[in-house]
Amino acid sequence: MNVRRSAAVLAAAAVIGGATPAVAADSSPSPSVAIPAGLYGRTDPTYDGVWRQSLALLAQNTVGVRPASSAIGWLTGQQCANGAFAAFRADTTKPCDAKLMVDTNSTAAAVQALAALGNHTPVTAKSVAWLKSVQNADGGWGYSPGGASDANSTAVVVGALSATGEQPQNVVKGGKSPYDALLKLALPCTGDGAGAFAYQPDKKGALLANADATAAAVVAALGKGLGGAAANPDSEGLTCKGPAADAGQAARNGTTYLARELTGTGHLTSSLPGAEDQPDYGNTADAVVALATAGQSEVAAPAVHWLQTNSAKWAQQAGPAAYAQLILAATAVSADPRHFGSQDLVALLNATGPGPVYVPTAAPSASADAKGGTAAAEDSSGPGTAVWIAGGVLLVVIVAVGFMLFGRGRNKQS
């Protein structure tokens, strides 16, 4: 897909029985609902508001940016009393009712973002309790409570559990853990799609390889969340061994599949009907995160180069979720998201929402102290305004006193 699929869009597609649509581009016509203050992006948030907000906050935190309180407050304000999140609540003054379609994906993504930011334990604990309450008997999760388990939903919930200090293997229903559910969706090492994960079994019970599901499942099988985590090189290399007896081997098999799919072009292709020959930028970024998390950053290098060269137009059209995905992919392989091809991904993401409180002046991986960032008042008059105000203040100080000692940006990871 053009953007890592919004779970709400998936659900809507399932309800109407049609093809999964792409998430709306950021240059689309005016949305049918008003864009709330604090929300990233200017497109209709009905199907992806919480998802894109969560990815944006998670990516900003990864590079040491402290977002505006209005951005965080918008996300926490979307939570229902029972701990669940819907894709978007236009009126949060009204309590959630049975008509509101809450879902596991929005809830788990919000948990990951708020856990990374820190100081939101009451919110995240309530959400995790709700997620546990809707776990399926096979150990996994579907998009909607009670829906059949799928690899993507199970994966994003595993990320939420890990982010809040839970041990996913110990979160069981009917004696089954999330890893049991993922193993049931792992393809064997022979035949089409060898080593991959399926999203769900098809109507006949067959497992069909799905690159999006595979990237998500690999990261989850390794106990990580949406941003993954760079790992030391895998000494066992790219070898599919099956049937996979545990989550670790299933992750290695899935990594082998992703590496094979990226060979030659350096990118994945779309699975949307009529667009099968088109590059899939979002899933390629997710594959980079999965490879890095599996200790295969070198194997991901061609895909990183392809994204650096080709993703600018796509990201501009797709908006904050796309910039967030690219930032997470870049940081997973220790690339600089501020110099990602022709793009400063950090500045571009920041510009889609309220001005951040703090923006480091250097990549957070550099040695740094807390004084090196660009600070500004929260909730300035427009996206990115805080950065420009701080830059103007800095110039005045330089002219007035003749010097300014800069620290470098700090590495902030809650």
TrEMBL record:
- Specify the signal sequence span: 1-24
**Keywords for this protein:** Membrane, Metal-binding, Signal, Transmembrane, Transmembrane helix
Could you tell me one molecular function GO term of this UniProt entry?
Answer: metal ion binding
**Annotated InterPro entries:** SQ_cyclase_C, Terpenoid_cyclase/PrenylTrfase
All copies of domain Squalene cyclase C-terminal, residue ranges: 107-154
Q: List the Pfam families hit by this protein, alphabetically.
A: SQHop_cyclase_C
Residues annotated as transmembrane: 386-406
Q: What is this protein called?
A: Squalene cyclase C-terminal domain-containing protein
Q: What is the lineage of its organism?
A: Bacteria, Bacillati, Actinomycetota, Actinomycetes, Kitasatosporales
